Amino acid sequence: MDLELSEQYESLRMEVRDFLQVNRAQALAARDLYGEGRDRAVAWQTILVEKGFVARTLPKHFGGFGAEPDLLETMVIQQEFARAKLPLGLSNQGIDMFVPTLLVFGTEEQQERYIGPTIRGEMIWCQGYSEPGSGSDLASLRTRAVRQGDRYVINGQKIWTSTAKQADMMFALVRTDTAHKHAGISYIVLSMDTPGIDVRPLMTMNGEASFNEVFFTDVEVPCENVVGEEGQGWNVGTTTLKFERGMLGRPELSERLYLGCVDILERVGLKNNGAFRDRLMRLQARLLAHKLHGMRLVTDRLENRDSGVSSLIVKLNGCQLNYDLCALAIDAMGERGVLRFGSKHVEDGGSWQTTHMYSLGLIIGGGTAQIQKNIISEAGLGMPREPKPAKAPRSA
Amino acid sequence: MEFGPSKAQRLLRDATVDLLKQSASVERVREIMETETAVDDELKAALADQGALGLLVSERYGGSGLGLFETVLVAQELGRNAAPFDLTTASVIAPLLIEAAGDHAQREQWLNKVASGEEIVAVVRGVKEGGGRFIGVSSYAAGVNQATSLLVEVGGRCWLLPVATQGVTVEQLNTIDETRRWSEVTFDGVAVSDCERLTNRVSSQELSRVAQAGQIATAADSLGACYRGIEVAVEYAKGREQFGRIIGSFQAVKHLCAEMIADVDPLQSLVWYAAYAWDERQDDIHHVAPLCKAHSAEIGYDCVTKATQVFGGVGFTWECDMHLYFKRVQVDRQLFGRPEELREQAAMAQSA
User: Fold this and answer.
1) Which of A57, A212, B197, B324 could lock B82 by a disulfide, CB 3.0 to 4.6 Å apart?
2) Would you call A380 and B261 a contact, using CB atoms and an 8 Å cutoff?
């Protein structure tokens, strides 16, 4: 066990720290990618790429910084942004899920075309996976892509599509073959302004329209937009989901929420209340274990060791922790805790309620907690799969 | 940076795993449990041979001069096997107190014996010193059953005396965990001058530091028992059939297992970090140690409760090994502070 970092990393740490101190105002102003502030967000993101703080190891000709992969550099950069309580550049499905997938499965041409604009925030992506009839059983999806000459004609519907309204592009799983369940799925990218696409906002429980339904009527997409081979989409798509699991359990948000809880307890005068303090300490223990667990996973990767079950539990734990942290803040506020944004007396603009409900959404989204437990027990502990019903209805 | 055991530390752990496979198989543990005092001299000798008793003793006094991190690796394996040896008392608390209180000659004399296993020391608290005599009762004293000597600590002052001293009565208490016995030690007029007084008074900061080491080692013991509990529960669930199916294929069962490992595995990271922070004397140890112990108590309780249920009715039987790990964790929970007290300590340490 050795947590010392060599000089090279400590000097990178100071570089990041100084940079954030000098540029704090610009960082704070660059938060709204999906609204008025898009230009500012893209400009800030572009600077972060140039500095090598994001897209650090991405090759230069794809628009990245081109550094050799070094997990410790990445870790130090993450730690310094967390310390400054600033997000480490943009985080969205294009950057965190699509780009890593494209690096594995994309053609050179696809990589050159999409990666650069995506990481700079110029090209926004949404994910077309779930359908009304295909949630946890994603491979039963039915959105149909029929090949006609050099294009596919797509008909069907996607649901739970975050940022579909703002997105320029979608990566989607579609059915190119009805005879095979998994082998009939293809991974395809398409422009959101293609004729025949209809996006309808889906109002969620926290009053936001963070999800959408997306309807496809005779949407024509060139065949070259398939990522991987036709029929390989399940393999490609589940790779994306692995990246999503990594994205959804990251401790940075938990850490911010924890500090928010400490602040709320202070503000409402419950800092020295034994019961609330006990609850806070329980959460602190979980947060600490969760954070340290992340460092252990970094070490496993540095040593090329398979983390096994250890890597599968991050999403489950992180999302539940966020939810429980918000709940503490809400309880500490009492009546004020259930006031909605816009109401008189509301604290922090009602963000605790919004985040609380959104955290519940993330316990469900990205593979429900129950699906996570299936994965943990089957892939992690080697427990047998649920047997298929004797006569499974054929999908699609 | 390397988070977790280094190669050398993993070798030490693997050697302990092998040793315990030989010396603390579950059959052997059950055999020892049935005996009057549950002391296994062969296990003690094997641990001593491997140097496991002197990990925290510096080299000049016959130990290996390693740290709490290494000790914790061994403690976790002992917990995993529900082994009948109280390492926390014999190889953490006792040597740390002797180190802190003894002068050079006393350390030389005692620590060599502690490291070699020639002397196993248990710690006795709650006794009063007055009129040149020790008077009083120390209840719930751990590790006295395996000890050759007692270390009496009164307000930072320490004395050593053989267990078999005139005026000292040891009565065994029966906790639910039959692998590690507790004792009630009564002092009835033992002359202070007959005991070896250690030269230095141990400061309250040093006493806290010793307690923190005990908290972390105990957390590791529970962690080991939890891992074994998950192992045996998963193994059972993979073999047992009901309704024409392996029960491990039912989500009701496999989700219990997933929850256990999802809770326990991050605790491993916390235990490693806490031991490291103790060794490095980091500032955050004052809240990390009690939080680590409190967390192990909560996680441990949930884990052994769920693991027992995976066995169904079998889990409630004496024959099923699960109760060994269940009881190990339940007893650990009460040592070095209850979870609520420890979280209070952690909160205080951060507001100070």
Assistant:
1) B324
2) yes
Q: Are A385 and B249 in contact (CB under 8 A)?
A: yes
- Minimal Cβ distance to B4: which of A1, A288, A289: A1
Q: Do B3 and A298 touch (CB under 8 A)?
A: yes
Does the annotation count A244 as an active-site position? yes
Using CA of residue B278, residue B282, residue B284, residue B286, what is the dihedral sign?
A: positive
Return the DSSP state at B2: B
The mean pLDDT of chain A is 92
Interface confidence (ipTM) of the complex: 0.96
| Closest residue, chain A, to B236 (C-alpha) | A383
A72/B344 Cβ within 8 A: no
B196-197: strand order across its sheet: B121-124, B149-154, B157-162, B196-197
- The domain defined by A249-380 folds into Butyryl-CoA Dehydrogenase, subunit A; domain 3 (1.20.140)
Are A1 and B6 in contact (CB < 8 Å)?
yes
Distance from A36 to chain B by nearest Cα, in Å? Answer: 41
- pLDDT (tens digit, 0 to 9) for every residue of chain B, 352 residues total? 899 999 999 999 999 999 999 999 999 999 999 999 999 999 999 999 999 999 999 999 999 999 999 999 999 999 999 999 999 999 999 999 999 999 999 999 999 999 999 999 999 999 999 899 999 999 999 999 999 999 999 999 999 999 999 999 999 999 999 999 999 999 998 999 999 999 999 999 999 999 999 999 999 999 999 999 999 999 999 999 999 999 999 999 999 999 999 999 999 999 999 999 999 999 999 999 999 999 999 999 999 999 999 999 999 999 999 999 999 999 999 999 999 999 999 999 998 7
Which of A80, A131, A230, A244 is an active site residue? Answer: A244
Question: Which among B261, B276, B291 is the nearest to A288, CB-wise?
Answer: B291
Closest CA to A286 of B296, B161, B80, B326: B296
CATH topology of domain B121-197: Butyryl-CoA Dehydrogenase, subunit A; domain 2 (2.40.110)
State how far residue B59 is from chain A, nearest Cα, in angstroms. Answer: 20
CATH: 2.40.50.140, 2.40.110.10, 2.60.40.10, 2.120.10.30. Which one for A125-231? 2.40.110.10
Of the partner residues B1, B234, B262, the one whose CB lies closest to the CB of residue A317: B262
CB nearest A384 (choices: B249, B255, B267): B249
Q: Do A376 and B258 touch (CB under 8 A)?
A: yes
Q: Do A280 and B347 touch (CB under 8 A)?
A: yes
Among all chains, which residue has been given the structure tokens 């999403």? A315
**Helix count (H) and strand count (E) of chain B?**
12, 10
For residue A127, give the 3-state DSSP assignment: strand
pTM, rounded to two decimals = 0.91
What b/e string do you get for B20-50 counting C-beta neighbours within 10 Å, with b at 16 or more? beebbeeebbbebbeeeebbbeebbebbbeb
